[in-house]
Amino acid sequence: MHIARIGLGAAAATSVAALAVTALGTAAPAAVPHTLAVPAVAGHTLVHGVSSPLTSEQCQTKWHINCYTPLQYRKAYDLNALYRKGITGKGRTIVIVDSYGSPTVQHDLDVYSHQFGLPSTKVKVVKWGHVPAFDPKNSDMTGWAGETTLDVEMAHAVAPDAKIVVVETAVSETEGTTGLPEMMDAEKYLIDHNVGDVISQSFGATENTFPGFSRGDFSSIKKLRYAFQDADRKKVTVLAASGDGGATDLKADGKTYYKKRVNSWPSSDPLVTSIGGTQLHLNDKGDRVKPDSVYNDYGSGGGGQSHVFTRPSFQNGVKSKVGTRRGTPDVSMAAAVNGGAWVYSSYDPTAVGWDVSGGTSEATPLFSGIVALADQAAGHRVGNIQKALYDLYAHNARANGIVDVNDGTNNSYQGVTGYKAVNGYDLATGVGTVDALKFVPALAKASHRG
To answer: Which residue in 64, 163, 217, 385 has the fewest CB atoms around it within 10 Å?
Structure first.
């Protein structure tokens, strides 16, 4: 089984290079799914430390992509009016789960915040297991460090006063250890110890790669759900990236894609809110120059029917789209690399500086910030938001801050036909995206009824 770090970067290299990272290791015990922690998408441009962020116009001139700052995102998602009302995530905690973490995460967040005039925040790091010393020459570690950096900076961009806890897990293939059980153990421990209000997960593994799947035995996935069941009881919101493979995803080798529609876990879990990807079209002020479309450039927003989970009751209202299965994603945020986010990092001494990152691993921490704002507005955790989200969609969606993505673009990828963004719910962007000024108070109010 392959576990992917969902997300990718593009930026200021003068040449295009393929990123193919493999991790070698001894076999895991047969009873435990063996996982490979590698980047989900190969073949994108690499960055080598741009000295400072550029405008979108400059990015278009140099690299033929748009690149956005947190100030543009704040305008695009209608966040500034919430901040003026004091809704900043204060008193709430976002938990981010990543293998290895980054040794420079606090410094990098401080530089990022200073660059854009944001207050910084203290990042608490929790090491779960025997996390090996960071090696900047280990491409597996630097891949996860990049993910950690993206996660932290995006969550902070949306919820500047929320606390951030990074959980570093000790995935180390050279020692034969595995990823998902460790990640779930870490999450359950933090839930039980009341550490966070929302958990952001930017990783996933194709359902088909789990042991027993081909025989219709889904126990290997269902045995890993204990953290999410615990979160549901404790009213902790759990999010997961829907993936960057469109309607398909990676095989167990971590390199080749299925030639059919597949889905990935934990995004497909009904106890998890699946976060898909859009492409934003903004000017330098953050105003939309045209409506959002489906993320489909250096990857594509994951979405489709689960082959493990049947349709949950909260999706009964969209059964014409999901059929008898659990459908993903539920809601979407910015993820396209052409329209990616500026991120600062210094964990790799050979590439200190700024790059542009995208993927649903960008969208997921962005939405974790939205949840933290709703938690503050409600005065308590909003918890599992699935029922509330679909209720808000079904009744006065626009007034509740749910913005339809319906421009006809799709998440077809790697030769596998995906799904179009059409009116209402679809398997490309879920219910759509959000206008935070309306959505945050609506979600907070709906959680009182839940």
So the answer is: 64
